Amino acid sequence: MDLKIKRKSTRTAYTSNLLESYPHDLQMYKIPPIEDIRLQEFESLALERLTLLRCLTTATTLKGLRIYSDEWKDYIINELRSQGLKYYANLCDMSGCGTNESDLLARRKDHIGHFILRLAYCRTEELRRWFIARELELFKMRFMTMSPKAVEEFFKINQLCYTSISDEEKNDLMPYLRESTMHHKIDTSKIYKVKFYEVLDLVKARKVYIQGGYAYIPDRDFISVLSAQYRIHLKQSLAIACHHLGEIEQDERLVGLLKGLHQSYAGSDYSETKVTIPIESLDSLSVKSFPLCMRQLHEQLRLSHHLKHGGRLQYGLFLKGIGVTLEDSLRFWRDEFTKIMESDKFEKQYAYNVRYNYGKEGSKRNYSAFNCLKIINNNVGPGDCHGCPYRHCDPSNLKNRLKGYGIENQALNDIVEMAKKGHFQIACSKYFDSAHNTDIGLGINHPNQYFEESQKLLAGNKVEIKKETKVAKKEEPNSIEEMDFDEISEWNE
User: Fold this and answer.
1) Is the pLDDT assigned to residue 117 strictly greater than 60?
2) Which end of the chain has the smaller Cβ count within 10 Å, N or C?
3) Contacts of 329 (CB under 8 A, 6+ apart)
């Protein structure tokens, strides 16, 4: 007797609801999420979305890759995977309408993350421009990866009433289409007939055939129609979000996160290391592997045997992050400060703060080193030597300092020019390349990242930094004293 075994469905009610809400990888984000989520997930999804959008900026601005090229796309996907954002990498690489639970959960995160960033980026015209530009780049990239079947499904789901012209009409227009478009596969492409004002970017570039007020575009260029619609939708949605911002911010838990999200650091945490750096090697390391912001602090400390509070905080946490132990740190600061003061004064006025940074005093938290954004946005007053030299130094002083460090003229001019334009982290990346005689175009987001990558180049990957998380949470103040600084928590282009 034959036995028929009925396989039990593994699809849960929750999964079915997700499929109904998110039937396709690519979304137009017209309906906001209505489910309840925990504040921790709210913050994580926001930072993950921010990391995704910043990858787009890095690929174009820092790496110099041609937008939408295969190299550009591959860099973004690989970078997302390295950041632990595999679900975003999959959405960017396999846009379609799969029904696996992992696909549905990825779409949910994508949807919620987008709407959270709307709330954070609706505040000013500058933030809105950046957000719209990045979201459009992401939308275009994902659309261009879709199969023809997935495109048709996307049209159907979003009720986009566009149909391709008949083969007969296409054959009649073929000579004009070949002359006006630059696609090699025009013979096998579907051709859509749309109002010319829906593809003004193609009209401007003279990449489309127009007849009787209609533009005839191959399926590959149809993204121009969708992008125009999506841009209008985003502009309107951000304006609405800005109008209702006051109501949203009645929840005090969201105010700080949303206001500072565009300046949040979303990289690796360097609060612990697997190595110990002896303080006797700091002089040589400062020349070989310190970023400029830390090198100038080290040299100033050696020169004057003292640093103001901002400098001590910035440099002290950096030293902790590279692997200087508490005992060595106390000895390092004591040896230097006691050249101009009594030992008792150091113990009473300065030793406490050193122990505090290591979580041995006060709230006893394990504080992490400052990232580039925090350093760039710190308040730097007269006589201070902390902060970011690319932002806070006069261009002529910066140029003289770089020249003194042996940076060759072309690289020196490039660094100073980037600093003048406000691209401080790109300037730091160029300094890294010049100092190490390389051209890797590293995206610098953290002084300790600079140190780690420098040591890898110089010592054959002997330094391994333990990273607690791939995507850091929004930072809390590193100490009571740090509250004197403006609270920030994106690297702008």
Assistant:
1) yes
2) N
3) 279, 316, 319, 320, 354, 357, 358
Mean pLDDT confidence for 392-408: 93
> pLDDT band at 485, cuts 50/70/90?
very low
Residue 267 pLDDT > 80: no
Q: Which residue has the tokens 């492409």?
A: 189
**In angstroms, rounded to a whole number, what is the distance separating the alpha carbons of residues 29 and 47?**
18
CA distances from 162 to 147, 159, 193, 225, 300 (A): 17, 9, 8, 10, 66
Residue 366's nearest CA partner among 355, 352, 377 is: 355
The number of residues in the chain equals 493
Dihedral sign, Cα of residue 318, residue 324, residue 330, residue 332:
negative
Cα–Cα distance for residue pair 146/161, rounded to 1 Å = 18
> Residue 363 gets which letter from DSSP?
T
pLDDT at 5: 43
Beta-carbon contacts of 242 under 8 Å, excluding residues fewer than 6 positions away, are: 122, 123
Give me the mean pLDDT over the 137-152 stretch: 89
Q: Is pLDDT of 428 > 60?
A: yes
The pair of structure tokens assigned to 55 is 């990858």
Q: Secondary structure of the chain: what % helix, strand, coil (to 5)?
A: 60, 5, 40
pTM of the predicted structure, to 2 decimals:
0.70
Q: What is the mean pLDDT of the chain?
A: 85
Q: How many CB atoms lie within 10 A of CB 85?
A: 23
Using CA atoms, how far residue 135 sits from 87, 96, 138, 139, 201, in Å, is: 17, 18, 5, 6, 17
CB atoms within 10 A of CB 214: 15
Checking if the pLDDT of 52 tops 90, the result is yes
- Do the Cβ atoms of 447 and 372 come closer than 8 Å? yes
What's the pLDDT score for residue 63? 79
Which candidate, 18, 216, 233, places its Cα nearest to that of 118? 233
Angle at 285 between CA 283 and CA 289, to 5 degrees: 145
Based on the number of CB atoms within 10 Å of its own CB, is 361 exposed (0-12), middle (13-18) or buried (19 or more)?
middle
Question: Which among 135, 122, 111, 110 is positioned nearest to 33, based on CA atoms?
Answer: 111
CA 25 to CA 92: how far, in whole Å? Answer: 9
